[in-house]
Amino acid sequence: MKIIWNRKSATVRDVYEALRGQRQIAYTTVMTMMKILERKKFLKKTQQDRAFVYQPARPKEQVIRSMVQDFVARVFDGSAEPLLVHLVKDRHLSEKEIREITRMIQESK
Question: Same domain, yes or no, for 104 and 65?
């Protein structure tokens, strides 16, 4: 998704080439993931010559929210607390980020 958000549109080949520069990945894996993202309505495709061109189907924030909600539901049985505890304990959150989260929690009350 990040590659398509950055480029605004891309073919499977475009995404494959961009990912291949970062890590080893099979073309068919990229194609399968893009089909799944299309089925979930995160991507839409149009045919251009002999290739499909994919574009974001929903705003980035909406897609991220949906993916995070799905992850929390599957991994943490719908509760965000264990995820936050994990991030804090493993020091994946800076002090500044923790203060910002605390501020947002206070504002939501």
Answer: yes
Structural domain span for residue 51 = 2-56
Contact 4, 52 (CB under 8 A): no
What is the CATH classification number for the domain harbouring 78?
Answer: 1.10.4040
Bridge partners (DSSP) listed for residue 48 = 51
For residues 73 and 94, state if they share a domain. yes
Query: Cα–Cα distances in Å, from 57 out to 3, 40, 80, 83, 95?
Result: 14, 10, 26, 28, 35
3-state secondary structure of 74: helix
Count of structural domains within the chain: 2
pTM of the predicted model, to two decimals?
A: 0.73
Cα separation of 77 and 52, whole Å? Answer: 36
CA distance 31 to 91: 35
pLDDT tens-digit map of 27-48: 999 999 999 999 999 999 999 9
